[in-house]
Amino acid sequence: MKKSHIIALGVIAIAVGIIISTVGDASTYVGFSEAEDLAKNGNNKSIHVVGSLKKDTQGNIVGMIYDPVTDPNSFQFTMIDSLQREEKVIYNQPKPQDLDKSEKVVVVGSMDLQNKVFRAEQILLKCPSKYNNGELNPEGEKAVSMQK
């Protein structure tokens, strides 16, 4: 075998190893019920839950607790998943800036069965589309990722 063939096989083997290791770490999209079931079975891997913020009839967010003066790294809110289950979410980072404007919220983390809350490690926001009724909105679509 030529040296170039050996090097090519080595590169392929490394690429396959990287792909296999990232597939094992990939998280899945679930609802709060399935997240709770996974936690009960001892699976503490990070999962994605898609939902929206709980709002009252005037459109104000319900259940949001954030006091940057007292503790800027403590943010709590109530989220409703795609199956209409409500759950309290705790995020130990500052409140994302455009959270109030977002249409959908994706929280990445796991269920805390002792405290009956979802502990988020990351929050992804889906802001309003820049294409509403055929008009262009200059603010556009934006995803915000806040990591620990």
Automatic annotation (TrEMBL):
It is found in: Membrane. Keywords: Cytochrome c-type biogenesis, Heme, Iron, Membrane, Metal-binding. GO terms for biological process: cytochrome complex assembly; protein-heme linkage. One of its GO terms (molecular function) is heme binding. One of its GO terms (cellular component) is plasma membrane. Pfam families: CcmE. InterPro entries: CcmE, CcmE-like_sf, NA-bd_OB-fold. This is Cytochrome c maturation protein CcmE.
